[in-house]
Amino acid sequence: MATRNKTLLKVIILGDTSVGKTSLMNQYVNRKFSNQYKATIGADFLTKEVMVDDRIVTMQVCMTNSVSSKKAQQWCQSKNNMPYFETSAKEGKNVEQAFQTIARNALAQESEVELYNEFPDQIKLSGEGSRNNGGDSCAC
């Protein structure tokens, strides 16, 4: 039976209020840009399935307003020069490339990322096994 393996990657977009985190997330997941957004209270997330080097990857993109871009850039540099991207959700500039790079880097570093299987294409049930022939006891 054929099954498909999926990898779940959680991506967090950090930044100050009103810098375009929701716009970036919507541009990546929905390929849409809007000038009309309400302030996000707490956190928000969307998911997108993508193919990365012949693997199905579910990207769970979450955003929260807690870190300035300068602090984020410094943090990335302190973590073995983790990539830092200048993007434009309005123009779609570097959006897809940024998320593809994030996914590739995460998959390259995985030691034991949780894989989960979808239901197999077919489920075969056999008629063999114990059967209850009218008694009160269960054959389980």
TrEMBL record:
Pfam families: Ras (PF00071). It comes from the Eukaryota. The keyword Nucleotide-binding applies. Keywords: GTP-binding, Nucleotide-binding. The keyword Nucleotide-binding applies. One of its GO terms (biological process) is phagosome-lysosome fusion. Coiled coil: none annotated. Belongs to the small GTPase superfamily. Rab family. This is Ras-related protein Rab-7a. It comes from Diaphorina citri (Asian citrus psyllid). The gene is LOC103513617.
